[in-house]
Amino acid sequence: MNSPILTHSATHTGREVPEDTVDSLLSKMTLEEKIGQLQQVDASADPFPDDLIDGVRTGRIGSVINLAQTDACNRIQRVAVEESRLGIPLLMGRDVIHGFRTIFPIPLGQAAAWNPDLVREAARIAAVEARSQGVHWTFAPMIDISRDPRWGRIAESFGEDPYLTGLLGSAMVEGFQTDDLSGHGAILACAKHFVGYGASESGRDYSATNIPANELRNIYLEPFRRVVEAGAATLMTSFSDIDGVPATANGALLNGVLRSDWAFDGLVVSDWNAINELIVHGLCEDGRSAAAEAALAGVDMEMAGDAYARHLAGLIEDGVLSISLIDSMVARVLRLKQQLGLFERPYTDAAGFDPLVSDRALKVAYESAVESLVLLKNAGAVLPLREAQLGSIAVIGPLADAPHEQMGTWVFDGQKSDSVTPLQALRQQCSGKIQVNYAPGLETSRSRTHDLFGAAETAVLKSDVALVFLGEESILSGEAHSRADIRLPGAQSELLARIKALGKPVVTVVLAGRPLVISENLPNTDALLYAWHPGTMGGPAITAVLFGKEAPRGKLPVTFPKSVGQIPIYYNHKNTGRPPNASEMILIDDIEVGALQTSLGMSAFYLDDGFEPLFPFGFGLSYGHCELEDLELSQPEIGQGEQLKIRVSARNTGGRTGFETVQLYIRDITGSLTRPVKELKAFKRLSLEPGRCEVVEFELGAADLSFYRRDGSFGPEPGRFCLWVSTSSEGLQAEFSLGA
Ligand code: GLC
Questions:
Q1: Which of 34, 100, 126, 740 is least surrounded by Cβ atoms within 10 Å, i.e. has the fewest?
Q2: Residue 508 CB contacts under 8 Å (≥ 6 apart), including other chains
Q3: Residue 647 lies in a domain
């Protein structure tokens, strides 16, 4: 039976929703049915509990989360459509963060590819796989700016830069939603967590965030502004306390910035039980006041909580909330169901979709994994491995053959049986040609015993090269999984040192959900490839890069600190009144005993760790060697309506095809607010044959130089600017001016 309300066959092209459809439905709904649409309930229990079925049947539930199997989704949907009074279909939500069944690199790894097209393609594949199993709504992209690698959720982010995060977050939204939500395999995106969650104090998840207003506007809000422009259908509020007002009750940000300044007309959903947590935060006395705060602030739907269900009716009766407010919240829910075509087609027929883990899905997963890999060290060009010169390789480490771990955090529907591990791929690559000697050396990344070291050393001694796979299991990053000491866990560093001492060439591959502090490990390896958690096809991708079938091309989307003590450390920092420089630094070992109380150094550095990171944002090596030369600007000054044209030549002076990402940074030298020492504004990805030179062009205009100024307005300010064109955070420099 189709819904009795909507008999016309609406053909929707996305956002234009016939209001009469929604209005006519609203006019028929009871208050209880309206409040029901604002509930998202956990449906992971199998079989469905009676209260879930009853809640759906009586119209007291509008959405479920954690159901992602066609038959089960259709079963609960039939109750909604065929047994409830108005037959309003359910929205099925699921965390499809970096793949559904085919798992792509964690978002931090996808960010290292600096490839929005690939992010979009992976999201499209994830959406079609999820939609084929009954999912209508994913809770991604996560676009929290992350500057603290102790924070476990940095794994889910696109890193520290607002421009790159906004670009990749928008690409993910487009991949999930396409331009027609009622089209094949389209699902709702949900940009999260609005806002500032990545600034969780001391990197401990859920802790308070104290973000100054200008930093909030110009750094943390910027990616959300971009994804709202890109058409994100929904947003999720953050758990975090924002300078005393938790995001889930922060009307200034939700109704103010999001809805009023940015004219966002989509849906806002709370995070899991975050409305009731307003009591725990100490903002609200009880569930009733929490429900009032969240509804008045602009939260439409409650995820996995009961504050709205228990208190909205009473708040309306008492005149605290208006029915028109409730109607606007319910209308946003109904419009999304309408745009998805759920009133006409509430059920899912998996037969209409490609099989899960299709060849194309695996191909894109492989490409994503290849492009996510960042080569951080390659002493003596030990990579790529010369197959013809190898008789045997040692494959060592707890992450060489860990099919579940390589998928990374936030994987619900991926299957480790689909994973191809590095060991499996290396055995396939070497089969019949090169002897593979495998010894894990440690049972897990956290093992502290050296019991297995001997076997590992034996494997290395009978091999021509040691390939060592170290890092973190997937559970050591992600939600609630922050670490205070972010070096390699367990006895991995000791294992690597013991292997290096054997005198063979050593190649280390790190699989982790965050930038680890690997300073002590660098001297113990000739080459280091950072693989993040590379997903289902991590093994073949790593193998292809190790043997030169693919060239590494990833660039760091986040700064790597020398030590945890340097955190937070990020490239787009302020200059301060006493910026450090290497020549004036005084290092702790150079200080005499009895030193007079003079001010040592007089600038912003550490006596023991200086001020520079281990590896900067934007860094990554390839197998070619790209030199930048002949930087030219079209003019020394541009007017407000003009475009500055920037040209540079990129030449591969190496002997192998290399990939390069040429990056454009600016610095606004003086402003009504102090501005970062560098801001990424554009980049171009190149593939260069040996000896080949390519001219790269960029354009910059006043809009690219705009920011939220001291008076709160958004726009550019006339004055002098520096620009850099680089393949990392260093590079060729020039100056230009913006006229009044
Ligand atoms: C979690 C996360 C959020 C996720 C939601 C549903 O607590 O904070 O990112 O989408 O709950 O699983």
A1: 740
A2: 468, 469, 470, 496, 521, 524, 525, 527, 528, 529
A3: yes
Query: Are 410 and 278 in a shared domain?
Result: no
Our answer to whether residue 271 is catalytic in this structure is: yes
The distance between the two most distant Cα atoms of the chain, rounded to a whole number of Å, is: 88
Nearest CA to ligand 1 atom 12: 95
User: pLDDT tens digits, residue range 381-394?
Assistant: 999 999 999 999 99
Q: Tell me the one-letter amino acid at 406.
A: Q
156 lines ligand 1 (CB under 6 A): no
What's the pLDDT tens digit per position in 319-334?
999 999 999 999 999 9
* DSSP E strands, 220-321: 234-237, 241-242, 245-246, 267-269, 302-303
116's tokens: 């929005």
| Positions in the chain short of pLDDT 70 | 1-20, 599-601, 729-730
CATH number, domain with residue 639: 2.60.40.10
How many folded domains does the chain comprise?
A: 3
Q: Are 616 and 716 in contact (CB under 8 A)?
A: no
Report whether 86 contacts 29 (CB < 8 A). Answer: yes
- Which is nearest to 269 in space by CA: 77, 139, 145, 158? 139
Is the same domain home to 309 and 437? no
Distance 272 CA to ligand 1 centre (A): 6
Decide if 345 is inside a domain. yes
Alpha-carbon span 191 to 184, nearest angstrom:
21
Q: Based on the domain organization, do 105 and 240 belong to the same domain?
A: yes
Residue 494 CB burial class (10 angstroms; 0-12, 13-18, ≥19) = middle
Residue 696: C-alpha distances to residues 630, 645, 656 (Å): 11, 11, 20
Regarding whether 324 and 448 lie in a shared domain, the answer is no
From 497, 521, 546, give the residue that closes a domain.
546
Look at the block and give the residue holding tokens 């190496």: 654
Q: Which of residues 546, 571, 604 is at a domain's end?
A: 546
What is the rounded (10 degree) CA torsion for 697, 701, 705, 707? -130
213-269 residue pLDDT tens: 999 999 999 999 999 999 999 999 999 999 999 999 999 999 999 999 999 999 999
Question: Is the CB of residue 479 below 6 angstroms from any atom belonging to ligand 1?
Answer: yes
| pLDDT tens for each residue of 668-698 | 999 999 999 999 999 999 999 999 999 999 9
Cis before 195 (ω within 30): yes
Same structural domain, 51 and 184: yes
- Is 161 part of a structural domain of the chain? yes
Q: Is the CB of 224 under 6 A from ligand 1?
A: no
CB atoms within 10 A of CB 231: 16
With contact defined as beta carbons under 8 Å apart, do 697 and 681 qualify? no
**What is the distance in angstroms between the CA of the first residue and the CA of the last residue of the chain?**
65
> In Å, how far from its chain's centre is CA 265?
24
Structural domain for 649, as ranges:
626-738
Ligand 1 and 271: CB distance under 6 A: yes
Strand (E) positions, 280-358? 302-303
Establish if 7 belongs to a structural domain. no
What's the pTM value of the predicted model, to 2 decimals? 0.96
